[in-house]
Amino acid sequence: MKAKKIITIGVTVVSSALVVLSGIMKLSRSEEIVSSLSKVGVGDYLVPLALMEIGFTALFIYPKTMKIGFILLSCYFAGALATELSHGTPFNALLPMILIWIAAFLRDSSIFLPDTTAEKIA
Fold it and tell me: Cα–Cα distances in Å, from 86 out to 8, 45, 62, 81, 97?
């Protein structure tokens, strides 16, 4: 049981750090980030995108808001993946999304699976 807790914390930290660092990179407005995001048409929205990444991750990290944070991060990265697919750019959104899904499953599997512990009403 202790190993599962360590793995869960590790995956959650790595996935959250990846997303927060992505947000920080957007806030830094480096030339490479601005040019790559301008190619797909979202270069003018770096600050709102960065704040969404950081805010959604904060919701995901906090246990009571983990589910809404998971939903918001999934939607954010699904939109990013759709944008990457439509513009033929590398799938940079796929790794964070996969790590977030793994972390969410390890933290609370009821997000994906039905809760079998509740007694059924006859």
Answer: 33, 18, 33, 9, 18
Helices (H), the chain: 2-28, 31-39, 46-61, 66-87, 94-107
CA 30 to chain centre: 22
Q: Give tens-digit pLDDT for 47-80.
A: 999 999 999 999 999 999 999 999 999 999 999 9
Q: What is the DSSP letter of 119?
A: P
Angstrom CA distances, 82 to 6, 13, 77, 78, 114, stand at: 33, 25, 8, 6, 28
Using the structure block, give the residue that is written with the tokens 């939903």.
Answer: 71
Q: What is the largest CA-CA distance in the chain?
A: 63
**Residue-wise pLDDT tens digits, 105-119:** 999 888 888 766 655
Q: Would you put residue 37 in left (φ > 0), alpha (ψ -120 to 50) or beta? A: alpha
AA identity, residue 20: V
Whose tokens are 């709102």? That residue is: 48
- pTM of structure: 0.86
Token pair recorded at residue 8: 């869960």
